[in-house]
Amino acid sequence: MACSPSATLLSNSLHLNKTTSLCRLHVHPTLPPKQNLRIYSKNIFRLSTTLHRVTNIPFASASAGVESAALSEDTMSSLDSVKVFDLSGNGIPISDLWKDRKAVVAFARHFGCVLCRKRADYLASKKDRMDASGVALVLIGPGSIDQAKAFAEKTKFEGEIYADPTHSSYEAFKFVSGVLTTFTPKAGLKIIQLYMDGYRQDWKLSFEKDTVTKGGWKQGGIVVAGPGKNNISYVHKDKEAGDDPEIEDILKACCS
Q1: How far apart are CA 70 and CA 230, in angstroms?
Q2: 3-state helix, strand, coil in the chain (%, to 5)
Q3: Regarding beta strands 160-163 and 135-141, do their DSSP bridges make them parallel or antiparallel, or are they unpaired?
Q4: Is the Cβ–Cβ distance between 210 and 124 less than 8 Å?
Q5: Could you give the 3-state DSSP secondary structure of residue 52?
Q6: Least crowded by CB within 10 Å, which of 2, 39, 130, 197?
């Protein structure tokens, strides 16, 4: 007898809950990084294989990212129809974020991601310099307005925060996506270091249904744009999770 949709969803949820409890990162500050990486890698393998089986997420769906100062006409045209939402729920055409000003726009993997919390701090540490140059600092995440609010409350990020519930900005910029771009040895080592530095993943946000099935596998990037909606001077597309560009490259693009 075929399972009903509700029974299938329950079965999938049980698999995910079991995997989550097994695979949450257990970092031991007293152990050497290589030993922590072995523990992490074993847990990540369980998580990635279970998620692939349960959700049928492809292991990769795009080529590696690049840095560029130019976007295709297709990308520029598709941005005209992209809307993001502020914390009050107001929809804003994404190009309005830089139409009348210059902005550094960071795209997070998702609002619960520990690597994205580090990215937020990494950029905010240079906000004084951006402010002095009249440059806005913006963060966009693939997820709901409520997730964006939770991120704002927990991180105290001093820039502007917007939600992209449909992930249309990520599609427009053609950011890479896939499990294999998320669980990499380099990302694993970086996560271990972040845990040792006191950063933590928000597991509640990370395992909400939309993030697990769609948003959590999209890598982000960083864009410097404006003034003028078609004036995009710098684009960094993450090739894997935690692929932050050099901060001086961003500052050179936005504040020189």
Answers
A1: 10
A2: 50, 15, 35
A3: parallel
A4: no
A5: helix
A6: 2
pLDDT averaged per 10 residues in sequence order, the chain, 256 residues: 40 43 48 55 54 47 45 77 96 96 95 92 96 98 93 94 95 86 80 86 79 74 95 93 92 94
Scan for tokens 């993997």, then name that residue.
Answer: 109
Exposed e or buried b per residue across 110-133, where buried means at least 16 C-beta atoms within 10 angstroms of its C-beta: bbbbbbbbbbbeebbebbeebeee
Q: Nearest 5°: CA angle at 63, between 57 and 69? A: 130
**Residues with Cβ < 8 Å from 45, sequence gap 6 or more?**
none
21: which residues sit within 8 A by CB, 6+ positions away?
none
Q: Are 85 and 163 in contact (CB under 8 A)?
A: yes
Range list of H helices, the chain: 5-23, 33-55, 73-79, 114-124, 127-132, 145-155, 168-173, 179-182, 185-196, 203-206, 209-213, 247-255
